[in-house]
Specification:
- This protein folds into 2 domains: 78 residues, Double Stranded RNA Binding Domain, CATH 3.30.160; 68 residues, no CATH class.
- It is 42% helix and 12% strand.
- The chain has 7 helices and 5 strands; from the N terminus they run ααβββαββαααα.
- The chain has a 3-stranded antiparallel beta sheet, covered by helices on one side.
- Helix 3 packs parallel to helix 4, helix 4 crosses helix 5 and helix 4 packs parallel to helix 7.
- The longest helix is centred in the middle third of the chain and has 19 residues.
- The chain is elongated.
- The N and C termini lie far apart (44 Å).
């Protein structure tokens, strides 16, 4: 395999806007037979999917379904989630929430199935990175209440863990859950 160029955090973050075909074109795709429970219907075909994003070395796997297409869709969602968790960029001066996200009365409401969820998680983590892991300044910069921000994080365990990591780097204790 030849030398693969790495992308910057901002370039990686832009991948959240890529359509599935453009994003998967940047990946090595492995199809294989998954092991585990499933009895006679398992291991008949190579339905498991592993994606390795060549520009970031992020690796995600989806094996839950017997249908390769479903696993591919899950793996792409997981790749977007991984990008949102690792690609910190400076918080913009003016926060612009995706149109499909409801922010009213300083409360954040976004359905887990909303395709913009990865943008929201990335923005929330950017705010924590910019605030040194402090909840109140992060919430203020996003135009949210601290309780709304904390509630959102509790609903997204990987983002919660990443905030814990950000807080630890800033010498702060983990959030109480």
């Amino acid at each position: 395999m030849g030398h693969t160029e790495r992308c910057t955090k901002a370039e990686l973050r832009a991948r959240l806007d890529f359509d599935d075909s453009k994003l998967i074109a940047e990946c090595d795709v492995d199809r294989y037979r998954a092991s585990g429970p499933g009895g006679q219907h398992r291991n008949k075909v190579a339905s498991a999917i592993r994606l390795r994003h060549k520009l970031s070395d992020l690796v995600v796997v989806a094996t839950e379904s017997r249908l390769q297409g479903e696993n591919k869709a899950r793996a792409l969602r997981r790749l977007r989630s991984a990008v949102a968790l690792v690609a910190r960029v400076p918080l913009p001066e003016k926060i612009v929430w995706p149109r499909s996200v409801d922010v009213s009365q300083r409360r954040l409401r976004v359905n887990e199935k909303n395709p913009a969820i990865h943008h929201v998680i990335a923005l929330v983590l950017d705010a924590f990175a910019d605030s040194g892991g402090r909840v109140a300044p992060a919430a203020k910069s996003l135009g949210l209440t601290s309780s709304s921000l904390t509630r959102f994080l509790k609903e997204h365990p990987k983002a919660w863990r990443e905030v814990g990591r950000i807080r630890g780097e800033a010498g702060r204790p983990p959030l109480k859950g």
